[in-house]
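Per your request, structure below.
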């Protein structure tokens, strides 16, 4: 399921010094790593085949290997559809690198994955998949599963990516969230986070990626309005050296719905 060339290259990328923070293994408060996988699909048989693979083969095997909760999200707006994202949490860099070996040894996974793995060039399981490695903020070290997940209640997820023109600018934006109170302002405004992370390996770097959850679109608009009008946010966003024009070069927003079998 995981390409060996991708996994082995993660450990050898000299520009990504942030990966060093995760190399020595997990401790009680260590931030997770997230394997963030994007499947681009065609309408027809591909979405159903991918869903069958994820629900019946991949997620049970990942859970057996200690990776949970696994999130699966379908694009509503912001990218061409059908597109599916899969989020796999890992407790350490070692668990990232050893994941494929664990799946290779899982006979139940190998059997259940046959229809997906044996797709032909004329009838593939997907058009393309792109993979990134994300590192959770130390202040927000793990996925916060929404309360509504347990009851399969309504959840509208919002995936936001903030790109910066330089590493220095990127770290300034990370600092706004993790040290200068932006996460606290989010919560006060009703914006409920699921995770906050930095992109350690993948496209569009340097960037940070985070996810929010809303009950519905009306709730999303209400919370963002409260955030924009928050006095502390107005003060923070006007701080010299931390304004958007100085440290953020692009913001991308994608709205997502959870797959019926998603664990997030």
């Amino acid at each position: 399921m995981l390409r060996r060339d991708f996994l082995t290259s993660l450990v050898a990328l000299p520009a990504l010094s942030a990966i060093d923070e995760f190399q020595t293994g997990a401790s009680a408060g260590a931030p997770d790593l997230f394997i963030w996988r994007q499947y681009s699909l065609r309408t027809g048989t591909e979405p159903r085949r991918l869903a069958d693979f994820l629900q019946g083969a991949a997620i049970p095997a990942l859970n057996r290997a200690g990776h949970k909760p696994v999130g699966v999200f379908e694009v509503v707006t912001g990218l061409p559809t059908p597109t599916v994202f899969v989020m796999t949490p890992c407790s350490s860099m070692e668990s990232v690198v050893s994941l494929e070996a664990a799946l290779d040894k899982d006979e139940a996974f190998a059997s259940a994955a046959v229809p997906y793995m044996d797709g032909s060039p004329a009838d593939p399981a997907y058009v393309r998949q792109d993979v990134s490695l994300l590192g959770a903020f130390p202040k927000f070290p793990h996925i916060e599963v929404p309360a509504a997940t347990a009851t399969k209640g309504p959840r509208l997820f919002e995936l936001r990516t903030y790109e910066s023109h330089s590493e220095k600018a990127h770290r300034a934006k990370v600092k706004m969230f993790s040290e200068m109170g932006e996460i606290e302002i989010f919560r006060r405004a009703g914006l409920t986070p699921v995770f906050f992370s930095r992109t350690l390996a993948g496209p569009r770097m340097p960037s940070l990626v985070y996810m929010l959850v809303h009950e519905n679109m009306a709730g999303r608009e209400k919370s963002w309005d409260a955030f924009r009008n928050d006095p502390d946010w107005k003060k923070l966003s006007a701080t010299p050296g931390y304004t958007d024009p100085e440290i953020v070069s692009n913001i991308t927003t994608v709205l997502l719905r959870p797959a019926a079998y998603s664990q997030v």
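Confidence is low (pLDDT under 50) at residues 1-17, 22-26.

Regards,
D.
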